[in-house]
Amino acid sequence: MRARLALLAAAVSVLTLVAFLVPLALLVRTVAEDRATVRATADAQSLVPVVGTADAATIRLTVEQLAADSGRPVSVFLPDGTVLGTPVPRTPAVALAARGQSLTAESAGGREVVIAVQGLPDGTGVIRTVVPGAELTAGVGRAWLVLALLGMLLVVIGLVVADRLARSLVRPISELSAVSHRLANAELDARVTPAGPVELREVAGALNHLAGRIQELLAQEREQVADLSHRLRTPLTALRLEAESLGDPQDAARITAAVDGLERAVTGLIRQARRQRPTAAPTGCDAAAVVADRVAFWSVLAEDTGRTVHCALAAGPLPVAVAADDLAAAVDALLGNVFAHTPDGAPFTVRLAPVAGRSAGSYGQVLLTVADEGPGMPPDTVRRGASTAGSTGLGLDIARRAAEAGGGRLELRTGPTGGAEVLLWLTPRATPTAA
């Protein structure tokens, strides 16, 4: 934008200067020609009294002296055909002046000035002088050079002024852009210093107001989520007490472990809600260990509901670029969907294996597959909040965001038996080196 404004100022300056300097240059040349012609005419007219009253010898001496002083050729044509001064042939202009008409005409050597002298005894005499081209244009080149330098100076000044003006416009715009990018990167304390024209200052004030309002809304949302999560601690405490009072130690341990997992999730939710700035990327985890742990947890519930679990989990370690809590939440969401949206007794399969050579984009990734033999689900269910079974519609979105946070992705498709098949592609922490 700064370069374009400078270019626009240069174009306007050049056009303006051309519109003024070209006519001025032509005027300078015209004035120089007229000035030289007036001097030559005055010199020639000074001979009129001499030609009308003096004898031939006096006229010759006066003409020669005038030619020497002016540096121009001067000739006097007497009525009897005598030519005094510079010997030249009679020109059409001289012939016309012999009839009593003084004039100025252009010739090959310059500008010809002829003056008729009437009242002589034998007729009309003619005084002729020629203004050479060098005298007609004397000083014109220097004047044009001065005008050209003046024009260039004005263009440079215009460019400097335009650059300063463009800088005063571009700098606030660049600051607005930088602050908007900082806000997009969750730096909500970024603010713009209003500067520049009134319109830009208004935009800066509006952006600062928007940033402040967003900060207030996010703070309110964090507090509301934190308060809601904190309220869950009371029923969790009650569940823990109920679990401890169970007579079967295995059931008590199982329910207590579930309550502990739920409490950890609530604690993580509170911490995340109160987080002011994005933290560093997760360090990752062993996908084999996390998936095996969560499948073992859900296998107990599968046994209670008469479901058959087919597991094909690769031996670890399988390091992936997803935090352990996030991956556990994703696995819980996928397996929770199986129990929530398929009838009791419907079997499901969990597979975890490294993938090599599937395609250039997925080489070396780890694939987690959860497939069931239920009624299936439409592909658009992966949208956040989308659900066709009366749920919150957040389970698949949790899994998707967990995978994408580590550079992976989520796919949803229909399995061979018509049930749902969810593929969670996980990117390893260290990219393998090709052999």
From TrEMBL:
Recorded catalytic activity of this chain's protein: ATP + protein L-histidine = ADP + protein N-phospho-L-histidine
Location (main, coarse): membrane
Name under which the protein is recorded: Signal transduction histidine-protein kinase/phosphatase MprB
Keyword Iron on entry: no
Pfam families the record matches: HAMP, HATPase_c, HisKA
Keywords: ATP-binding, Cell membrane, Hydrolase, Kinase, Magnesium, Manganese, Membrane, Nucleotide-binding, Phosphoprotein, Protein phosphatase, Stress response, Transferase, Transmembrane, Transmembrane helix, Two-component regulatory system, Virulence
PANTHER family from the UniProt entry: SENSOR PROTEIN CREC
GO cellular component: plasma membrane
